[in-house]
Each structure stands twice: as C-alpha cells, then as structure tokens.
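Sample 1 of the test manifest.
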Amino acid sequence: MAVNTEKNSYTVIFAVLMVIVVGSLLAFVASGLKPMIDENERFEKQQNILYAMGVNENEGDGDVSFVPTTQVEDEFSQYITQQLVLEGTEAVEKENAYLINVEKALAKAKSGEKAELPLLIGEKDGEKFYIIPMYGKGLWDAIWGYMSVGENMEIKGVYFDHRGETPGLGANIKQRFFMDDFKGESIMDDNSYVGVEVAKGNNDPLNSDKEDNQVDALAGATITGNGVTAMIKESLKLYKPYLQTIRSN
Amino acid sequence: MALLSKKDANLIKDPLADNNPITIQVLGICSALAITAELKASVVMAISVLFVLGVGNVVISLIRNIIPAKIRIIVQLVVVASLVIIVDQVLKAFAYELSKTLSVFVGLIITNCIIMGRFEAFALGNGPWKSFLDGIGNALGYGVILVIVGFFRELLGSGTLFGMKVLGDPVSKTGLYSIGYENNGFMIIPPAALIVVGIIIWVQRSRNRALIEEA
C-alpha cells in the first residue's frame, strides 16, 4: 500500500477512524450482551443474599457454593418473605427492593438525605432472618456484602465480595474460612451496636470466643480487613433505628 | 515439531528459556509480584495473557503497515484494551463465574509490559503467523515463571495448592504441622515473589553461563 503513514493528516484520520470503529464495536458488543449480563448479575445478587442467610450448597470444609442459577429464582421467592425499604424507623414494603443500588442508598443516607435503604426479611426453619446489605471500601476498590442477623442480633451468616482486592490476600474475604467466622458473633456489646471487628491481635484463630465482637484477621490483608470492620460499622449505624424496633418487640 | 519450521519453533521455544520475558528481559515483573500469592490466580493470569498476547500480536501484525508511527503506542493500547474488554463482556454474559475470577486481572493485563513489548518489538515488524507464534511463546514463558512462583508462594506461605491443604491443617495441627512446621507468612506478601524470581534467575544463569550479562 502506498500510503504515507508519516503525514500528519493521515495520523489524524487514522486516529479518528480508529476511535469510531473501536467505539462502535465496543458499544455494539456491550449493548448486545447487556440483557444476559443483567440477568447474571440479578442471579448473583439473589445467590449472595441466600448465601448470607445460610441457603447454599456448602459441603463440609469445601469452597463457597451457591444455590445453582437455575433454581435461585424459585428459592429466592421461597425464602425471602418480605422486601422492605427503610426511612428511619419506618419500613415500607417494596417489590424488588434487593435490586436497589446499595452504594448510592447508603451514601445518600450517610449524608443525611432521604434514602431508601433496602432490608430483606427471610424465613428458614421457622426462624426470622434480617438481611442487611453493606457497602464499603477495601484496599484497592469497593467491597460489599450481606449480613443476616436473627432477632437477638446474633449474626446468622455473612457474604462478602470485592471488586479488586489482591488475590490470595484481601480477596480471601469471600472465602469460607473468613466468612464462617462471623457466624454466632453478636453485633451488640451490651446495648450499643458495635458490629464485629476484624482484629489482628485477638489470639483466637479458631474463633471460639463468640462474645468478643471480633473475628481473626487475614494475614497480609490489613487494609481490606479494616475496610470490612468499617463497612459493618457504617452500615449498622444506618440500620440501627430499625434494628432497635425489632429488639424492643 | 514437524508442523513448524525450525525458525518458527524457536519463536515459541526461546521465550520459554533463553529469552524468557521475566527472567531475561525482566518484563512483566509487576503482575508477577501482584498475583502469585496463590497458584490458581497464576494459572488464570497465564491463560488470559496467552489469549490476549496471541490475538493482539496477530491484530497488530495485520495492521502494522497502516499504523501511523507517531501514534503507534496509542494504537497498541487501544487494541489491547478493546480485546480485554470484549473478552470480559463475553465472559460476563456466558461464563459469569469465570468472569468474576478474571475481573481483577483485566487491569493488570492491559498494563502488562510484556504485551506492549512484544507488539512494539515483534508484531510491528513481522507477519501474522510469526507474530502469533511469538505471542504464544512469550505468554508461555511468562506463564511458566508465574506458575513456578505461585507454586512456591502458595505452598510455603499458606501450605496449600489450588486451595487444597497439602501439608495438613495449621489450626488443628495435623500432617507436617504436628511436628512443628509453620507457614512462612512472609511468602504471601509481594516482596517474596521478587526473591523467588531472583532465585529462578540465579539458577537459570548458573546453568547457562552465556546468559550472564557483562557488568
């Protein structure tokens, strides 16, 4: 081809064409796949919520295992009995509250604006589970999760996830050996909502002490661990008014 | 290797040993440090880079005669970034679980110096088939080191391989741990990777003295 690739005009034209071609290609791919991606994300949310209330396919000491995507919708509607949004102590039922963007809702509520905080109520074996969504910051990027508590404010289960924590270190917050430690811890210390701290020096690697509001931290992931602590604390602060009404009932 | 001429075969073989991107060219060190704390992540990263480098090299090679020299680096970046994004989107739609494991690596693949290095040094001056082989070879060379480092770091640091407890249980003191063995916490932090890579470089150069650079 006898094009002079050194010319400025050629460079500009090439750059413009490249942007148009690549841009439309990516837009085409993204919009074509969007419905499928959205559905996958919805299933994932349902799986995570069910996981936090102990509906999962974990076996023995094995890896985290969710309800299969083919069944998740049925099981979700079976176990989740109420979907609420909170404004202070007021709770209103709202369809598909679990799809509310937790990041935005929490940020709004934190800055004192009116916000719809989602809260799900599940029922399993006659027990009630209050499932609180959480959102916070790890070392590199966002972390989020769900925590289910019983009426006595004891944690029944948690699920954590992250966008970009270091594999093998901070990313281990979504491993069972970390998440299982939260089970049985109380988010209350006497009468204050302290949450659960990811603590480095609690000398309790087996996590047999369930009264200390602490779980054992991950080696090499201090900042991610602190992020989890902060995330639990911040979210609890916003849900506290409602949780108090459950306790007093 | 009857399929490939000797020259072509060398394109794959050289980067595996005597011209390894990590240990000889010292490229791609950043990701080798960041993600080798466990073996699974190393393998996933190796496969992703294999794909991106193989396809990217071919694309760059195909358009090498029409790329304006002044903005070639930007063009290379665009090619890598779009490839990675497309792969990520397709996985999200059809293999959601896998995409979640990979998402962490997307940013790391784009900034991997080996990819830009091979585009710049090879694909811009060679045909598509040769470039493809070069891409595969270099990605394999990178992957081999990644897996070796990941193996030692996970084994010595956490006592596991692919998440399986191969040395016994450190908490309930079974297996090796019953006779006083302890995991080396140092191995799971990034500097340990630098030391493992350093040892590999040392072993390789003491076996093949021709590789030692003159001071």
